[in-house]
C-alpha cells in the first residue's frame, strides 16, 4: 500500500506535460544559482525605443562603447576618413608609410565605385586624394608641430 501511495505522489508531483530540454536546462541553471548575480537584477527593464527596429543595435553600441561609424555605408566611411586627412596622419613619421596609406585609400575608393549599387539610383560619390598634395600638407603639419 505504501508503494502505491508513493507512486501516486510521484505522478502528482510530475508535470502533466514532459519538460522540454530547454526548460530543464533553465531550471537546472536556476537551481545552481547561475542567474543570481546578473547585472540589472531587480531593476526595471529599459524599454525605451522599442518602436525603433534597430533598438537592439543601438543599445549594443551604447553598452559596449562601440564605434558607430562602422555601421555607415562604405562610401560614407570613406568620406569621413578623407575629411580627417592629413590630421589623422600626424603621428606617422615615415613618408613612405603615409604614401602607402593614401594610395590604399584611393584603392578603396575606386573599389567602392565599382561595387554594385543597392537601393536608389543616386550614389554617394567619394573623391580620391591627390597623394602628392596630401603628402605636402602632411609635411607642413609636421613642420608646424616641431616649431
Helix and strand content put the structural class at mainly alpha
**How many alpha or pi helices?**
6
Order of helices and strands: HHHHHH
Low-confidence stretches: none
Proportion of residues in extended strands = under 5%
Oligomeric state of shown chains: single chain
Tally of strands: 0
Biggest sheet layout: none
Query: What is the averaged pLDDT score?
Result: 84
Q: Give the termini separation.
A: 101 Å
Q: In percent, how helical is the residue content?
A: 40-55%
Described by the principal axes of the CA atoms, the overall outline is elongated
Overall radius of gyration? 30 Å
Descriptive report:
- It is a single chain.
- By secondary structure, this protein is an all-alpha fold.
- The protein is 53% helix and 0% strand.
- The chain contains six helices and no strands.
- The protein has helices at residues 2-13, 21-32, 55-63, 74-83, 95-114, 131-145.
- The longest helix has 20 residues, at 95-114.
- The radius of gyration is 30 Å and the shape is elongated.
- The mean pLDDT is 84.
Amino acid at each position: 500500500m505504501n508503494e502505491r501511495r508513493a507512486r501516486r505522489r510521484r505522478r502528482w508531483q510530475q508535470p502533466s506535460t514532459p519538460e522540454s530540454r530547454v526548460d530543464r536546462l533553465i531550471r537546472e541553471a536556476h537551481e545552481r544559482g547561475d542567474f543570481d548575480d546578473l547585472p540589472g537584477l531587480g531593476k526595471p527593464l529599459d524599454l525605451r525605443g522599442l518602436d525603433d527596429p534597430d533598438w537592439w543595435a543601438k543599445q549594443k553600441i551604447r553598452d559596449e562603447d562601440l564605434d558607430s561609424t562602422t555601421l555607415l555605408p562604405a562610401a560614407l566611411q570613406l568620406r569621413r576618413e578623407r575629411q580627417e586627412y592629413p590630421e589623422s596622419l600626424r603621428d606617422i613619421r615615415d613618408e613612405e608609410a603615409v604614401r602607402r596609406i593614401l594610395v590604399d585609400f584611393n584603392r578603396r575608393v575606386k573599389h567602392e565605385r565599382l561595387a554594385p549599387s543597392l537601393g536608389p539610383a543616386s550614389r554617394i560619390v567619394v573623391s580620391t586624394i591627390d597623394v602628392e598634395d596630401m603628402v605636402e600638407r602632411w609635411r607642413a603639419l609636421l613642420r608646424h608641430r616641431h616649431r
